[in-house]
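Here is the promised in-class demo. Please do not try to memorize the tokens; focus on the logic of going from shape to residues.
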């Protein structure tokens, strides 16, 4: 008997999921990475913090940050040096990963 299943929940090494677990912060051997759950494609590596919201979530490393639209399931990548004042405030409120 062959059983095929698709997991939409968090995996053993996943820390937090965004947009119904479409995007996930995982705990690889060296650093935290944000990746697409279905393809495994890395979106942002060396994650140092995140802020989960109802409509928008933020994930950052030292150089860039990602804004995830929780409703649409899309994301945008930005350089921290070009962040708006509103985005800077969100980045300051982030939960730190160590």
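The designed amino acids, position by position:
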């Amino acid at each position: 008997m062959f059983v095929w299943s698709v997991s939409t929940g968090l995996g053993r090494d996943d820390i937090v999921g965004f947009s119904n677990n479409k995007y996930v912060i995982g705990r690889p051997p060296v650093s935290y990475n944000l990746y697409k759950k279905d393809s495994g494609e890395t979106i942002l590596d060396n994650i140092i913090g995140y802020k989960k919201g109802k409509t928008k979530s933020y994930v950052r490393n030292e150089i860039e940050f990602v804004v995830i639209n929780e409703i649409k399931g899309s994301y945008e990548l930005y350089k921290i040096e070009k962040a708006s004042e509103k985005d800077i405030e969100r980045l300051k409120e982030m939960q730190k990963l160590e």
